[in-house]
Backbone:
């Protein structure tokens, strides 16, 4: 990532000539396409395109943007341009369990998450030592003050630390509709069940009593419908019927941490397209 | 399977001494244990045990049964003894899609399903040629006569052909509560969705619109709650968001046929223990 | 597939401007891009691109070809244009086991393999009935005549039936170097082991004695080095150590048939790029 | 694990009456069987059995042992009795990469590895901080002293810290035959390739150039044949051909750490039976 790079995402109704229009716009602005992925969802006649390109001698970002505006007008495109020189600032909200926090911090340390992590926030003190081992400030909000006051404290911290995206790494509290609306499509949650099957509390207990043969976890955007927001990534693990609920929980931890990190990667690499309540991941 | 073999299954509340009691009963009846699998579900304090044994010189089945009755009284055991010389007779109910029918017939031909298949029943004529290619009589019931008359015809055929177990190999009709109660825990259905997530009609459409990243299929006992009966086997396949609903359907077919056959194997090999609305598969 | 469609594949050393050159060539020939997938293998600085496009009013294939020739000269491109109106003609070579033959015929019947299957050839009579059930002529070559004579007979049949590609669906004979050279990159074999681990005969026996915990199968191009040709597709299944060699074989069958069909799909859909002895599958 | 528990493992040639003999021995010694798993490997006529049992009022371990000795004489049994009150002491040997070290320490902290970890040894100082964060003494041996001197230092440390089992958590040095013979079947290595396919150095490079579609990792006992020792656990991940070698390495890390921990669990829970150069994992 030592060279300059942009990612362009485009969403619009399907039509002939879209890829040519996009690639011409990049080429005539002196951009060199590094990677192009696109998909036409024929079931709903929508077109999604994601292009990585490098600016070459003579590239002017404002020039590119005004060319894309013409495309947008002609084709009804919704588009975004991301500059890889600018990293998102991601806050981690946690509670008492450490496996997701550790995983995000370790993958970040390993250079696999394109973001900064300026702050860890929790309603319990338990995980403070882990955050500080990784040299990240840890703040505890006080649940005894009530949800509204807690959320106000969190919102202030997010503002103070210039946070762009929030990761609920097993936060275990339900955020208010006001909070999720304010941060719409910017809060990524890990649910420890294979949605939409086991919403709400104790999904592993639900799964055990139902006798399912495969359990899973889901990374999704949090919105005001609990565990119903658009799904980003999922994975599963086969269990057998000699496992106890406690063993489900242990096996589930490995799936959760993996799913959360894979979900974050897709967000931070601009692979997620949202349309009519679901995601399209274009890689 | 050229030698004599029995399978014993035992279910009871957990207690000290159960395995010793069972193995002693077999040994003192002159049975030689070939395989023993057992599980104590600590979450509900229940014990499940499955033993394969071969009768040796001097084994008398009635003698064995009366010894087991004493155990049953002492420990509250529910037990069954299956003689592998006797094969179940399984009817296949189908509709228009052939992939599950083919799979069951091919695995049966390959010796992987311990049963006889004396009859294929359908409400459409389309798959008749396949059944007869495999030398199995095919009967068409007439949906225009109404559900009650159709089911009466099916019940008569099941009786006439001495059927023990019914496999719904994509039958696509909802059986009446009277039918499912009469054949309780003897009807195995393949649902083309990962239960309990997508019950009812068009599960792949539901899954696509929800944007799930993994789809699946479920073999389960049919009961009066549609697609809610105890789960026997499940499998999944990862999809990506460039797949259309039609492609979900195609990918799903391979999962369905595999899941159905794996479910049937567990039934026919006496691996399924039912307890409080869920199965425990002991292998 | 009721509308006209072309697939273009391009391989060349990586360079700036490749995607723009290709998309411009298509657009200026009046082609409408339906799908574009591309990959730059940074480890070897090679570029691979696959484009589906539909001809629009005014498209002339010869015009397109001469434009692409200019690109080819400038960028060192190797390119192919496939017209989807023309189906490949695929011969199936089989021996005694039926699972791969059935699978290819069923998937073909289901419309999942874009080819014609004009002929089935075997060195044993066993599978004749299956081929004829699917209305495909079956020819037996006589192994007692010796390998050279057999292969001569096969080559004559391939010519007579205008065959383009050969599928070894568990053929179990080693083809001579003369044969594989003549049909280089046009013979697809299914090997019942996870290459490069278990080459040659009885891979499941080898795997069992080694005590591996996962077994697999590999679809690959056959060349003169036995089981060493470029790999097209692989899949695996977890086994546990209570399985016998015979059970490995049974479990392996399901993997083999799936892997073979997935390999054939990638060939027939023009997803396979060959470079320096390995494939790049671009989807 | 707060109650007393023993695990008995038995290996012998297959014969009628083995399970009855074992269960009778436990019952007559006043042991209560908690779990029994057994397997007869019909391909080699060998019997493997693993029993967990709790001592009840009147159980005497010496009494049990002398009863088992009689069985051993009669049936040719090789048997071991493990007391769960006694934990193995496992040394971790590491080099510069941290993912396996972190994983073992985190799973140990989470109570999933039944052992003590008294020491971490490395030939590089890089991972010292991690070990000490988890309050485990870290020792650096000096590679400049030469392999023999280094190994002598390691052997002294293993003795000093009363180590029972050695885990090579990406140690990256080849141990001498003297070392591996001395610690035969007590050194568990993680190899970052799917053995037996890619032995030796840079397995991900080998895999990439071969064009395999699935990569994996293998936990195995280290012996004097490099990467040839008995396999304990394996897992794989599907890759696609748009991945670079560097991405193989990153994806591989997650597989490696998982496989290593799963291998260690099977060792520490006494699930591994060794016979004729391969393992049988009985769970």
Residues:
């Amino acid at each position: 990532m030592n060279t300059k790079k942009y990612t362009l995402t485009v969403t619009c109704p399907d039509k002939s000539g879209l890829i040519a229009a996009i690639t011409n716009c990049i080429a005539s602005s002196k951009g060199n396409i590094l990677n192009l992925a696109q998909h036409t969802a024929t079931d709903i006649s929508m077109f999604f395109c994601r292009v990585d390109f490098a600016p070459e001698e003579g590239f002017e970002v404002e020039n590119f943007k005004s060319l894309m505006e013409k495309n947008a007008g002609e084709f009804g495109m919704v588009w975004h341009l991301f500059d890889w020189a600018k990293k998102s600032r991601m806050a981690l909200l946690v509670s008492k369990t450490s496996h997701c926090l550790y995983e995000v911090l370790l993958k970040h340390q390993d250079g696999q998450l394109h973001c900064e992590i300026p702050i860890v926030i929790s309603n319990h003190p338990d995980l403070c030592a882990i955050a500080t081992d990784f040299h990240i400030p840890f703040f505890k909000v006080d649940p005894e003050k009530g949800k509204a006051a807690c959320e106000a404290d969190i919102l202030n911290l997010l503002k103070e630390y210039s946070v762009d995206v929030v990761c609920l790494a097993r936060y275990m509290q339900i955020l208010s509709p006001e909070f999720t609306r304010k941060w719409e499509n910017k809060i990524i949650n890990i649910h420890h069940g294979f949605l939409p099957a086991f919403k709400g509390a104790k999904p592993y207990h639900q799964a055990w009593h139902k006798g399912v043969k495969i359990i899973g976890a889901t990374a999704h955007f949090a919105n005001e419908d609990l565990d119903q927001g658009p799904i980003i990534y999922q994975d599963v693990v086969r269990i057998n019927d000699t496992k106890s609920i406690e063993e489900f929980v242990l096996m589930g931890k490995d799936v959760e941490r993996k799913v959360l990190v894979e979900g974050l990667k897709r967000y931070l690499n601009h692979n997620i397209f949202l349309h009519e309540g679901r995601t399209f991941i274009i890689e």
Chain B has two domains: 6-83, 88-281. Chain B has a mean pLDDT of 95.
